[in-house]
Amino acid sequence: MEKEKIIFRDLGLMEYRAAWDYQETLLRENVRRKSSTYSREPAVNSEETLSTAPDSGLPTLHYLLFVEHPPVYTLGKSGNKENVLLSDEALKEKNIRFFHTNRGGDITFHGAGQVVGYPVLDLEKFGTDIGKYLRNIEEVIILTLADYGIKGHRSAGETGVWIDPDVQGKERKICAIGVRCSRWITMHGFAFNVNTDLSYFNHIIPCGISNKQVTSLEKELGLPADMEEAKETIRKNFERVFDAELVSEIFL
Looking at the 3D structure of the chain, how many domains does it have? Predict the structure, then answer.
């Protein structure tokens, strides 16, 4: 069976609002495709006279977007603003943006040296199970860490990827995950700390979880990681976990 193709785009450095709007555009287009109808020519040697007929929709398109954001805190739709420990004035002084988003999860940080991945997938092609989808994203990062000789784990009841989640006082999160799904089309995604300035996490209660640390690939390795190598490793493992092929474009 032919693998699903996912269009990969590295957006580089982009403001959070612009990336959010772009995802919304891709999601809406896929929803439109699902609900579309198409014109159909009568069959040869047929008495058929209908010129249009309902279809299951135009083919939906899958995307995986990579991006880095200027410093920004984003809060999930059910998150608690009190988990931001800075006032609005202090955020402006530090030149950190803030957005209350429509994804799941609580508060997290995005900034330079972090690989933010936004899969825009039609889960009707990958399995209509949000729990499984979240576990698959976690698996992508767990496999990526393994490629660097680091043991990543899940933490019971806490979405994301952790290191030593069962060792009290040493639990540290390396990848936050929060998604939205509409008509089985996904958006938002994961934030994997590669060479991230972790001091930004001191001004929030990351993911609303107190008394646990945040880490990065750089901190775990003891030296800066190559960002392009990290992106390529994530890409490889995304293809493996989702049994898909990343491509630069699809021509229908």
Answer: 1
